[in-house]
Amino acid sequence: MSSSSESRRRGRDQPHGHDAAAKRPRRRQKHLYLVMDDWNMGYSIHKLDVDAWESDAAGIETPRRLPEPAALRIAAPEDRSTAYFASLGNRILFVPDRYIDEDPILIYDTETASLSVGPRPTPALLPLGHIFFVEINQRLYALNPRRADQECSFEVVSLVPRDVDEQDPLCRRTDRWAVESVPAPMPFHRHELVGAHAVHPDGRTVFVSARNRNPGHGGVRKEGTWSFDARRAAWTWHGEWQMPFRDRGYYVDELDAWVGLRRDGFLCSCAVPSRGGAAALPECKLGKKTMFREELDRHVGTPGATLAYIGNGRFCLVECAAREGVAYEDAIDGAVDGCVLHVTVFGLKYDKRGDLETTAQQPSRSYILSRCSGAFPAKMFWM
Predict the structure, then answer these.
(1) Sign (positive/negative) of CA torsion 217, 124, 232, 194?
(2) CA distances from 228 to 35, 204, 348 (A)
(3) N or C: which end of the chain has fewer CB within 10 A?
């Protein structure tokens, strides 16, 4: 066979460029999922496509309603305690009542838009009032810091691989979840409250900062930061300092730092410390202005604003407040359209002097809410 014939045969055997591209799996587009107590019968999960937003023609942002129908609505009686939500991969996990141990963990799969029933929270996690969750290596680690005077452990929720040899076809297609305890004696004093946490770039270590709720208590440190290595199931002390942000910090590769939001609305970055042991407070930088569009005393919920990292150096800020001209008490009772929800997407970088600054913002959105609970701040997940 001639070389030209062989070349033509190879050309027929191999897919053309556009055919090969068509056969490659499409990368799933991510969306912003907002969990709100904005329904008189319970909670709603709203799905927003922020990458498709366009600027208003006149350049004036007009408040609008959240898109209907909601991705999911969850009925919950008003006489029950507030629910608790967390995320794992492309799933949103929630417990309808954080104080009742009979309630199972419900799992909403955002990829298939399906709802499944998971395991029940373990007694070590109840009540869920002050718990914090962190995802490490596709496993959800949960810890209740308020149980510091007891023998504590991380409770780990994970997805068990499906049994392909299972005879029952219903069992083969159903996700199976497991809950296990990882012994991790708490390093915190019972007066200390966790205020911030962030996952190290290694993907297996979480840093946790706590402060003393009772500074006048003799012999107890004012604040401190530890790290927990999930592989070794061991805590390490790093010093009497705190990470500068509130709640969760996000590692941004382009900045080689954690980024989070302060209570006053300023963004801040924090260099990632060594995992080796005690050290001084890492270098921190503060944004040039507050990111809040509303005054703090107008915020609804605690906290009234939430930050999420959505990749490629971009962040999303969600802020809920009483509308202008509406009294705070009237805004939260649901009698009028008294609340506004601001959703802002922006980039972040260091300027020429090494200071933290925001880059050009994408079009933002403001939504009118007829109900917004002060006891349940908006939750946000990017998946």
Answers:
(1) negative
(2) 29, 8, 28
(3) N
Cis, bond preceding 127 (omega within 30 deg of 0): yes
Give tens-digit pLDDT for 242-257.
999 999 999 999 999 9
Residue carrying structure tokens 């629910």: 83
Phi, psi of 371 (to 5 degrees): -150, 135
Which residues have a Cβ under 8 Å from the Cβ of 137 and sit 6 or more positions away?
Answer: 203, 204, 230
Model confidence over 92-145: pLDDT tens digits?
998 877 666 677 889 999 999 999 988 887 776 665 555 678 898 888 988 766
How many CA atoms are closer than 13 Å to the CA of 230, on its beta-carbon side? Answer: 22
Q: On the CB side of 48, how many CA atoms lie within 13 Å of its CA? A: 27
Domain boundaries, the chain: 83-243
Relative to beta strand 246-252, strand 192-199 is parallel
- The Cα-based distances of 54 to 31, 179, 309, 317 in angstroms read 16, 43, 20, 17
Decide: helix, strand or coil at residue 170: helix
How many residues are listed for the chain in this entry?
Answer: 383
Summarize pLDDT for 12-45 with one digit per residue, the tens. 344 444 454 455 556 678 999 999 888 878 899 9
Count the Cβ atoms, other than its own, within 10 Å of residue 52: 9
Read off the tokens for 107: 């799992």
Q: Which residue in this structure is represented by tokens 């709603």?
A: 44
**Structure tokens of 153?**
């452990």
362 burial via Cβ count (<10 Å: 0-12, 13-18, 19+) = middle
What confidence category does residue 153 fall into, taking pLDDT thresholds of 50, 70 and 90?
Answer: low
| Alpha-carbon gap, residue 349 to 26, rounded angstroms | 30
Round to the nearest angstrom and report the end-to-end CA distance of the chain.
53
Alpha-carbon distance values, 81 to 77, 215, 284, 317, 328 (Å): 9, 30, 38, 26, 22
DSSP sequence for 249-317: EEEETTTTEEEEE-TTSEEEEEEPPPSSS--PPPPEEEEEEE--SS-GGGB-SSSSEEEEEEETTEEEE
What distance in Å separates the CA atoms of residue 80 and residue 76, rounded to the nearest whole number?
7
Specify the range with the lowest mean pLDDT, choosing from 154-168, 203-217, 355-369: 154-168
- Give strand pairing partners of 352: none
CA-based nearest residue to 238, from 271, 191, 260: 271
